User: What shape does this take?
Amino acid sequence: MSDNPLHTPRALNGRAPDVFRKGAWVPMREYSQNEAVDFVVIGTGAGGGPLIARLAEMGYSVIGFDAGAYFRPLEDFASDETSQSQLYWTDERLIDGANPIKMGSNNSGKAVGGSTVHFAMVSLRFRPEWFQSRTKLGYAVDWPLDWREMWRYYDKAERDLAIAGPISYPWGPKRPRYPYRAHEIGGAAEWLARGAEAMGYQWSETPLATVSAPRGDSPSCVYRGFCRVGCSTNAKQSQLVTYIPRALKAGAEIRDLAMVGRIETNAQGLATGVHYHREGQWHFQRAKQVIVAGYAIETPRLLLNSATDRFPDGLANRSGYLGRNLMVQSNQAVYGRMKEMVRWNKGPPSLTITEHWNYEDKKDFFGGYCWMAQGPLPLEWSAAVSSSRGLWGEALRQKMMDYNHQVGLKMVGEMLPSMENRVTLAEEKDQYGLPITRITYGWQDNDKTMIQHALGEMQRSLELVGAQDIWRQENDTNHLAGTARMGFSAESSVVDADCRSWDVPNLWICDGSIFPTTGGVNPSLTITAIALRTADRIQTLHRQGKITL
Amino acid sequence: MSDTLPNPLDERYPGYDVLDKRLTPSWNDATRRVIDARLAVPREARFLNALEWRTLSALCDRVMPQPTYRPPVPLAAYVDQKLLSDTRPGFRDAALPPQRETWKNGLAVFEAEAMARHDQSFHALTPSEQEALMIEAGAGRLGHAGWSAEQMQLFFNGHVLTDILGAYYAHPTAWSEIGFGGPASPRGYVRMQNDRRDPWEAIEATPETVEKTRKENRNVR
Ligand SMILES: Cc1cc2nc3c(=O)[nH]c(=O)nc-3n(C[C@H](O)[C@H](O)[C@H](O)COP(=O)(O)OP(=O)(O)OC[C@H]3O[C@@H](n4cnc5c(N)ncnc54)[C@H](O)[C@@H]3O)c2cc1C
Ligand code: SF4
Assistant: This one.
């Protein structure tokens, strides 16, 4: 069928899919390959999406490239874990190290809208001190960003994404009321709340990027619970249904199924455009400025693959930091069985949260973590039960029958940066003929101490609400960050506070890879807030004559 | 029975069939398309050879033994289909070759070890003999010429278990067995609290209520 979004691009011939109407289209401006556009943005996810929209709204010519498909959620998304793996980045990547990271479903998307098409919508702000974790908390490194400025961009991101959250959030400095009311909490979420209360900790409804009342063409969330394999109703405020439609309206072009393989640089050491693969061929798009937003694996891969005689170790890699300091977040969990029928698959999976240990500093490790309620679907659940409990056969089949009685708490914890955790290129090539990545990861002592602390706390919480048959999932990680660190100097970082590379003045990186540290909350709201700030900074620098367009 | 003990029934949700909801607002067209295709999987080897298929089928029977009171999920067919289409998860342990080669090598080791120890094919061994080899593989103690025990462990835990369980719990039969609501778009759910049930959700039986529940679940859709 010619309308398979995985095989044939949809954003072509002056139009792009209207994600809100079956079979409908919206007009799209198109730029010629020979015209040097103001900005090429590689990646349309949490970082790329808002940048494309804001830069277009400021009047710049912008093309957003994505290697993934342009989905129509109302028509393309089944309620099914297996077939929805169409949203994941499933091209081969090698993993090794003491604690290899499972890639794919857990941490990287490939679609217009990026990983936000299948993310779990948890939209949290950093604790202010994390922007200065070296100075204020004594570990890792500081960010070159000021938390008060970030607070203003968080406000903006939360409004743009219509975050549904509580009237007052229990932790951190004052923030405005969330734009949409908090979602009703489900059975699994209630057990988190009761456990936290029994421990004397505060809890809250989790601020989520899915609407609790209609918004424009998005209906309210219907609590179907398939959020992590794509929202088929458009309640979820992914980039695909928020910033990308805004970008198109403002005159940006989106190129789907367009894999960028190399950034071209000239004799002056400036970027001149990108080589990309689309419809079976390589093409070249000229550009005045290039912004990479491919996330923590593909961003360093592209920059390493763009090496030249002048930049033999990859673009923007004078410091040697490119590809290093990869961070995942610890995502361990504790599960138990209740006598009640919980039916934990109903609703978004993480309806309640406690950030207690993000804001409490009396502990024997650096960094922080939160935990949230859980509601895995059967495939994910069977994999967790089997791998963590070492079960298969009849014993597993019986355990799986407790599905509707199950509850769980899952942490999102801060792993510390290490130069040894990194992304490099392997010999093997992918379907485009590009070297694939090798991802090397090992936990450090601090990470292990935190994980044990969190497992103990989550277990206590479940015990206090009377859960039975309690067990620990010790091996899970998710969310990526690092590999193109933002910093104060060209010697120890890849980009400056404005996400501009130190080495190539018209090359920028704006996605999760610029995080110097990863904090104890899910990353995407911070990525989006930084992208909104970067767009403003670009406009200011342009007005000051510090960017040539 | 103490109320915190697990329910001892094998059929926890008698009479409940996720497929009864196929034409309700819980299923959209995209879901019908993919589930119809899943149910129509050809039940034969298309990628593996005859001996590999038999070894795989034996592994499936051990990893997920199925009750005889309903048609079994054709697990080997799904694994074979996955290899045929070469659908990959997005990562590969650096110690292993690509997925197809890993599967072929791993199956060959089970067969070769069965021949070496019992002078019989893996599929002809007794279930407990098969399980013994599988346990050794999972514990990293089963290597065979050219294929290390570490590779066999990665194969067993990362491919055998993952792919077979992935096939089972992607099937409507398994969804019905565990009382999962199944596809849920566009209708979704309304009653979110503990012990609340939407009329299109399964009812769990107790040993005393099996027949009554079976009748009630027939109307769940
Ligand atoms: C299952 C899951 C649940 C999650 N839940 C949450 C959550 O609840 N809250 C939260 O804050 N975060 C969550 N995350 C993480 C969050 O989605 C990511 O941190 C965030 O989307 C990263 O943003 P990004 O812009 O860096 O990259 P992405 O959003 O991943 O976007 C990168 C895009 O770039 C494209 N790309 C890459 N390389 C190229 C190339 N060379 N050429 C063309 N295109 C390219 C990719 O196709 C992709 O679409 C979740 C992630 C997953 C996978
Ligand atoms: S629960 Fe809400 S956000 Fe999640 S998939 Fe359903 S409608 Fe979308």
